[in-house]
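Hey, I'm writing a tutorial for new members on how sequence and structure tokens pair up, and I'd like a real worked example in the thread rather than a made-up one. If someone can provide the structure for the chain below, I'll link this post from the tutorial.
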Amino acid sequence: SASALSRMFSGTGVCLLGAIWLVFASVFLFCVIFHNVWTGFGIFALLFQDFMRYGKSKQYFFQRPPWLQRMDLPKRWFAHFYVVSVIWNALLLGITCRCLFFGHPFPIWLQRPLSLLCGNVLHLNSGDELSILLVQMMLCVQAVRRLTECFFTSVFSNGVIHPVQYCWGLVYYVLVGLTVHCEGPILGTKLYTIRDLFSQGKWYHVAGIMLFFWATIHHHKSHVILASLRKNKLGEVINFRHSIPYGDWFEVVSCPHYLAELLIYLAISMTFEGRHLTWWFLVLYVLSSHAMMAILCHEFYVKKFDTYPKKRKAFIPFIF
């Protein structure tokens, strides 16, 4: 049963949710390694390439049969992911505040999936309540910002995504929120004041917040630069072409928005003082998935533009 599976993983010190992140990290690592190896016209190679790619990497340099194209969904539906993220993380933030300041336990409907996915693995304990609250607030800020960018900054072309990618995107942000709470501490057993929580403040909270906002600024700048390639000086959309982006972190990597997002997840891990094991598994997933997307994006730029800067790496400056 699912509960027995959860207990089995708990005995290893890794919860079921952590195992899920590890499995998906391995899947994307496989894609990174074999994205240019497993090609051809066989049905499995075709499905592999179609599942792995989205947006411009799916439209260009990859011939897709009409029956496969009929399943395409608009890339602009990315906004749906952030709608889910805003609603879910705002709900979790409200529940967290209710537990901390009013002493109410988690509602049963939330306790059950946490028990299933997390078992009895607790790497956080009493004294880490401030970390939980700060991280939940960070996720709310991230979700609201990304949703706002989708509506008011980004300019989406006619790029497409796979239905499986779309469904996973909706589930992903729910699992991220659950990951925050999956290793404790147990909330709702004690009343806290703002002063109580501030007394828990440590250097890693300050460092995590600083890294979060530094990465957030560059994440936003990246999306602004990408959108500016399709707008005039008045902010009006004038084309949907792909062009070479310049400025800020684009000078060293092709996908600074992926790099900045990885740093945001690392900032959250820092806010946990690095003791949230399941969050580290999520960081591994983000590293592998964003590495794959960055490679495909970088290869697109290199193949499409003869003048593309030779010194730019895909994802990690000067390395990868």
